[in-house]
């Protein structure tokens, strides 16, 4: 067993069931300012929050839905725990012909919003819920197996494992989930080029483990975490009983919640880290900038993000850019400092947190970026079933 949480239940359950009406729509996960601290134009402040979450185009109803999900689940979009991602999806409807004779099929693109949860959010809430309920919470080490069905603690093969298994114990009762690779792998591309996305190609063991772990946690706490979807798992959209392949939104939304976190608390692990905030405004010398760049690449390596394209994606997200920079050193001195400080802050906790955080950024970017120019063509229906992570929260 790797983790145990035991505590007497408290009489307060607000941490598990926050009041979804405590805030107005569009103010999700933003603490209500105290008297005297309310911005002069709160509507403008609220719009800025929506923009930083990448949800400025979401309707009021969609914001209400996301707000309710955040409040009900206790997950924080500003802490990389939950996202609402919009994807362009082709839907068809029948409308009367202008002549009044019969009907015609009309195909249009609409933005369908889906809530997705990171594994960090599932883990934190599982511990908090167990503590609040006064139940014992334990989790096992992950296991992987191949086509032979033999479970192993380590998967050394280059080929992706067939399945991963994770067990969560609630008061000693096991909740076991087996995630099969072909059911949960996220794919990108079209036609013969379609295959696992960058993160599933790079870390199939870790991605599959997270799918098994998230489902096992949901099995242990279905009332609090049921119906949520892990961002790392395949997520077909079900519309009127038919599965329609999702069309992703442009990369502009990749700023999302990650842009809010581009300034993490200052860390001391970087070489020649500035001693004061005033130093941040000073331009770097060529040698000093090179040291900061070297430190950034060291942290990328520690987080298992070594591909130049992946590093450019992270740089774009952490600087709030609309698209990837052409070069990895294409940033201001202040942006370089902020990136290194953010990566340092994650690594100070653990290399696993650094790796998971970078992986979450890449997965979110993959989910939002169009796979190819062919994505603008009409979508074809594909056969399949809804994943086992629960129902999606889509608003049309």
UniProtKB/TrEMBL annotation:
Gene Ontology terms, MF aspect: DNA binding
Record-annotated membrane-spanning stretches: none
Compositionally biased tracts (Low complexity): 265-277
BP terms from Gene Ontology: DNA metabolic process
InterPro entries: RecT_fam
Source domain of life: Bacteria
Disordered as annotated region, ranges: 241-286, 366-396
Pfam family, one: RecT
Protein name, entry field: Phage recombination protein Bet
Organism: Mycobacteroides franklinii
């Amino acid at each position: 067993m790797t983790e145990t949480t035991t505590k007497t239940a408290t009489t307060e359950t607000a941490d598990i069931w926050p009041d979804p009406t405590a805030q107005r729509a569009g103010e999700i996960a933003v603490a209500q300012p105290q008297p005297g601290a309310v911005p002069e134009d709160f509507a403008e402040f609220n719009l800025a929050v929506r923009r930083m979450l990448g949800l400025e185009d979401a309707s009021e109803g969609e914001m209400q839905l996301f707000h309710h999900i955040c409040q009900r689940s206790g997950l924080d979009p500003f802490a990389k725990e939950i996202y609402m991602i919009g994807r362009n999806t082709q839907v068809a409807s029948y409308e009367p012909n202008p002549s009044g004779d019969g009907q015609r099929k009309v195909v249009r693109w609409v933005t369908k919003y889906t809530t997705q949860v990171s594994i960090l959010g599932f883990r934190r809430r599982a511990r908090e819920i167990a503590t609040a309920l006064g139940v014992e919470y334990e989790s096992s080490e992950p296991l992987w197996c191949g086509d032979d069905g033999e479970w192993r603690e380590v998967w050394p093969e280059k080929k992706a494992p067939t399945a991963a298994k994770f067990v969560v114990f609630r008061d000693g009762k096991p909740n076991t989930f087996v995630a099969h690779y072909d059911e949960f792998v996220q794919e990108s591309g079209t036609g013969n080029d379609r295959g696992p996305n960058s993160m599933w190609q790079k870390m199939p063991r870790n991605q599959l483990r997270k799918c098994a772990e998230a489902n096992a946690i949901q099995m242990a706490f279905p009332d609090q975490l049921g119906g949520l979807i892990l961002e790392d798992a395949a997520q077909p959209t079900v519309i009127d009983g038919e599965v329609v392949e999702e069309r992703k939104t442009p990369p502009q939304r990749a700023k999302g919640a990650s842009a809010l976190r581009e300034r993490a608390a200052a860390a001391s692990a970087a070489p020649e880290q500035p001693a004061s905030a005033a130093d941040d405004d000073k331009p770097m010398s060529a040698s000093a900038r090179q040291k900061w760049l070297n430190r950034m690449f060291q942290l990328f390596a520690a987080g298992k993000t070594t591909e130049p394209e992946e590093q450019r994606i992270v740089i774009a997200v952490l600087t709030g850019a609309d698209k990837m920079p052409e070069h990895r050193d294409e940033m201001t001195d202040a942006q370089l400092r902020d990136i290194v400080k953010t990566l340092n802050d994650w690594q100070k906790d653990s290399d696993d947190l650094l790796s998971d955080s970078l992986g979450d950024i890449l997965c979110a970017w993959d989910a939002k970026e169009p796979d190819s120019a062919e994505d603008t063509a009409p979508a074809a229906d594909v056969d399949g079933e809804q994943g086992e992570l629960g129902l999606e929260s889509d608003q049309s």
